[in-house]
Amino acid sequence: MEQALMAANDASLDQIFQEWDDQRIRLHAAAIDQQAQKLGPYAKLIGQRLHLFAERWRPERMKVMKRLGNQNNASPDTVRGTLTPLARDEFIADLRTWGVPDRYAHAAGSLIQVR
To answer: What's this model's pTM, rounded to 2 decimal places?
Structure first.
């Protein structure tokens, strides 16, 4: 029984990663200039990192599986729903490594969305 549920997760993950490869879903970045005031003195750096992050980010299967946690029968919509929070967390972590304070890093996290 548990193997059947895990196989359902694998099928959902396979579907989402195929959609990603086919670019039916991808990471979208909002225009930074509309949010510059919210990002304070870090707006330029955040804009640069956002551009690079949006070009290079791809969800990692193991991280998506961790996000699903104990959900053993996740639908493709459930898997898809984990991608934006995962991307935002990874973008915030990237900004922190560049010295962006949490306040601005979290504000910047809202600039990305997977759809």
So the answer is: 0.92
Has residue 4 got a pLDDT over 90? Answer: no
As a whole number of angstroms, the distance between CA 20 and CA 24 comes to 6
Structural domain boundaries of the chain?
A: 2-114
Reference 26, options 83, 96, 65, 93; nearest CA is: 83
- Radius of gyration of the CA atoms of the chain, in A: 16
Cβ atoms within 10 Å, residue 72: 15
Residues 21-60 pLDDT 10s: 999 999 999 999 888 999 999 999 999 999 999 999 999 9
The tokens for 63 are 């991280």
Distance CA 112, CA 3 (A): 35
Q: Tokens representing 107?
A: 């504000």
